[in-house]
Amino acid sequence: MIPRWQTVLFVILLVASIVMGGVLWRLRERAHERQVTGEDPVPTQAPTVAPPEQATLLVANDNDNSLLPQTLSLPLPDSPGARAHAVLGKLLEIYAEPNAVHPVPGGPASIAQVFLLPAPNSDAAEAAAKGETDTGPELAVVNLTGAFAASHPSGLETETLTVLSICATLHANLPRVTEVRFLVDGQPRATLAGHADLTRTYLAADTAPTEGSHPE
Amino acid sequence: MRWIDTGSDRALPACRRWIAARMREHPAVWVAVIALLVAFAQLAAPAKGQTPPAQKFVVVLDAAHGGDDAGGRIPHADGGSQQEKAYTLALNIRLRSLLGARGIAVVTTREQDANVENENRSAIANRANARACLSLHASQSGSGVHLFVSSLPPVDQGQLSPWKTAQAAYITRSLALAGVINSALEHAGMTVTLGRTALPVIDSMACPAVAVEVAPELVTGQAQPTDIDDAGYEANVAEALAAAIVQWRTGSQTEAPQP
Q1: Domain that holds residue A135
Q2: What residue spans of chain B are helical by DSSP H?
Q3: A67 to chain B: nearest residue by CA?
Q4: How many CA atoms, within 13 angstroms, populate the side-chain half-sphere of residue B246?
Q5: Partner residue opposite A65 with nearest CB, options B73, B140, B193
Q6: Sheet harboring A111-118: ordered strands across?
Q7: Inter-chain CB proximity A216 and B196 less than 8 Å
Q8: What is the predicted pLDDT for the residue at B220?
Q9: What is the distance between the alpha carbons of residues B127 and A143, in angstroms, rounded to a whole number?
Q10: Do B198 and A200 make contact, defined as CB atoms within 8 angstroms?
Q11: What is the ipTM for the molecules in this complex?
């Protein structure tokens, strides 16, 4: 036999649970209504297309182990990070074309992200640490996709040219980028495809050649 | 003929008396023996200011990849292909034989299809105190032979060399070695390209080091490039590399000791 007080307590708790469930359901509905009414489905601003600008790509050539500057007119965004992503995407698009002189499959999608950071051990890094803005040298961190690294042809020359052309292209279009590091799928990786070292920091200025010269 | 005053023979020990007696019997033989001993002592003792004997000329050959690391796959003109690790081992063995026939001591980082870590390859080269180190590679990209020297900036030889940048103290010598190899390959009629690269194996080598990458040779008037393991092509590459090492040894003998 259940005591009377336990029966009363059970009924009270059951009623309270039902009431609380109803209140929560109503609160959820109100939140949804507020979210829907807060959005304006009517477009208020036309999509903008960045104006085309001159971009210099350092295109690798396997036949003579050289980097050849190639100037193109590209729509480049204002943001330096997006600009770096755009020029590198175009560079890899050239490498993915049929009959490319430096054939590498993958195309623009091979660049996952490009991050620009104040170069370590520089005034820019100290200014950033203090929360100040600075226009000093920058370190670019290029995050490649794993699919790109896996499909890259293996070889000293081809891997070296890919790395150096990325570094030189970044420096040509973003002169503040003086150092470049590489990640693959967000992780450090020993080599690109078995040869070129991806653990070191590359000095972008050293990789920028004069026209048609061999990378030193 | 009296060679020794024997007035005090009685005071001499028995052995000295015996020697004196023999010398009296065969004086010419004993003069020859003494002269030989003096000459030997003169030859054995280094003269003052004389430089120590030159170090042994040792070459390190590093056949890249091996074991689980097959390296690149190099397609053949006939549709087949070859793994990079197999080609580098074959070239390594052929080059070792050619150098051995020329009286050059060779140390190799691997003699079979085995896993060898990059650190071990560099350590083998550094323990050998080598006068030249060649890292052998193969690729399908480009044409001819690609020569690479470390892209580390050159530094003066210090007391201690960081492991990852040990090659920095040898960059100048490595560039000179690459120049000698370039001349030998071009003399053999091959296409050669020169470059700098970041290759961990040679970056840690404390010796003049060059990475040699062999690619199919494009020949004018020939529709298909010559495969890297074509018998004639491989022999030409090995012969040219051996000739370059002999030339490098000749030049090294006239220069100051290694840093």
Answers
A1: 52-207
A2: 14-25, 27-44, 84-101, 118-127, 171-187, 200-203, 231-253
A3: B195
A4: 15
A5: B193
A6: A111-118, A138-144, A177-184, A202-203
A7: yes
A8: 78
A9: 38
A10: yes
A11: 0.75
* Rounded-to-integer distance, Cα B182 and Cα B146, Å: 9
What's the domain range around B38? 6-44
Q: Distance of CA A97 to CAs A38, A93, A100, A212, B3, Å?
A: 46, 7, 6, 21, 100
Closest CA to A189 of A131, A153, A157, A142: A142
pLDDT digits (tens, 9 = 90+) for B232-252: 999 999 999 999 999 999 988
Backbone angles phi, psi at A148, to 5 degrees: -65, -45
- Residues comprising chain B, all counted: 259
User: Tell me: the pLDDT tens digits for B129-160?
Assistant: 999 999 999 999 989 999 999 999 898 876 67
What pLDDT does residue A212 have? 45
B139 and A154 in contact by Cβ < 8 A? yes
A178 within 8 A of A137, measured Cβ to Cβ: yes
Q: Would you call B177 an interface residue with chain A, using a CB distance cutoff of 8 Å? A: no
Interface test with B, best of A64, A195, A207 (most B CBs within 10 A): A195
Q: Which residues of B touch A154 (CB under 8 A)?
A: 71-73, 84, 139
Answer whether residue A47 is part of any domain.
Answer: no
| Distance, CA of A128 to CA of B101 (rounded, Å) | 63
Question: Are the Cβ atoms of A156 and B151 closer than 8 angstroms?
Answer: no
* Tokens found for residue A164: 């150096």
Q: Are residues A70 and A165 in the same domain?
A: yes
- Of A119 and B52, more confident: A119
Residue B69 lies in a domain: yes
Same domain, B123 and B22: no
Q: Are residues A27 and A56 in the same domain?
A: no
From the list B72, B197, B211, the residue facing A153 with the nearest CB is: B72
β-pairing, B209-214 with B145-150? antiparallel
User: Do B32 and B118 lie in a common domain?
Assistant: no
* A93 lies within 8 A of chain B by CB: no
Task: Identify whether the C-beta of residue A158 lies closer than 8 Å to the C-beta of residue B139.
Answer: yes
- Across residues B209-235, what is the average pLDDT? 89
* pLDDT(B255) > 70: no
Show residues of chain B in contact with A62, CB under 8 Å: 141-142
* Same domain (yes/no): A61, A22: no
Residues B29 and B141 in one domain: no
- Which residues, in sequence order, are bridge partners of residue B146? B193, B213
Substitution target in A65, A156, A207, A216 with the highest count of B β-carbons within 10 Å is: A156
In this prediction the pTM is 0.75
Instruction: Please state, in angstroms and rounded to a whole number, the distance separating the CA atoms of residues A139 and A181.
Output: 7
Q: Which of A124-133, A165-174, B144-153 has the lowest mean pLDDT?
A: A124-133
pLDDT band at B182 (very low <50, low <70, confident <90, very high): very high
